Amino acid sequence: MQKKDLRTENDNLKIFRDKKSTLTEQLLRRSLDELIQLKAVINQKTVCAMMDKLANSKEKEFKAIISPSAISKNEIYKNMILEAKEKVQLSDESKKLYKLDGDKKLEVFQLKTIIARKEAKIKELESIIERANIKDNTNIYSTYDNINYKYIVSDLKNYVMHEGISYIDNDGNLIDESTGNILIASRIVESL
């Protein structure tokens, strides 16, 4: 009895899988382009329905149409869908028309809320500066060249850490607690 050479079957299977993945990706791109052009709602379900409508016989033969669960398991496909969603949202934002006076009032209220939060943050930082007794020494800078910046930054770091306003992340950066912005980079923190 002759033994079957499984290597050739594995090669055929690999070729089939590669062909299927390229066809799936091409079909996904076409369906996303079509949905963007239609300015339709883009989610995994609508993408799969569009793939089914746009698939030709070769793509159907290779079973290039995938399910929403298959998309959710593949990071590349998920990212492609997210990018398409962003494109549709950006195109909608540029052509945004207010149909009601209430829409205008809602957006004004949202913007005022954002401004109020920023103003509160500024006041909080100003009070921290006052409590830390940091004064405006602009006239000193012009007369003195030997300023110990390490000491000033070190004191500032210690103070904001003590007040619970900031923390040090895994990379060693000093991060603002409320906004997540980097206050002092890790290379500076390490040199202190």
Detailed description of the structure:
- This protein has about 190 residues and is mostly helical.
- Helix content is about 70%, strand content about 5%.
- The protein is built from 9 helices and 3 strands, in the order ααααααααβββα.
- It has helices at about 5-40, 45-55, 55-60, 70-75, 75-95, 100-130, 140-145, 150-165, 185-190; strands at about 165-170, 175, 180-185.
- It has a 3-stranded antiparallel β-sheet.
- The longest helix has about 35 residues, at about 5-40.
- The model has no long low-confidence stretch (mean pLDDT about 80).
Provide the structure class: mainly alpha
Radius of gyration: 29 Å
Q: So what's the oligomer here?
A: single chain
* Number of helices in the DSSP assignment: 9
Biggest sheet descriptor: 3 strands, antiparallel
β-strand number:
3
Query: Which ranges are low-confidence, i.e. pLDDT below 50, for 5 or more consecutive residues?
Result: none
Number of domains: 2
Shape: elongated
What is the beta-strand fraction?
A: under 5%
Helix content: 55-70%
How would you spell out the order of helices and strands? HHHHHHHHEEEH
Mean pLDDT: 79
**N/C terminus separation:** 77 Å
Strand order of the largest sheet: 1-2-3
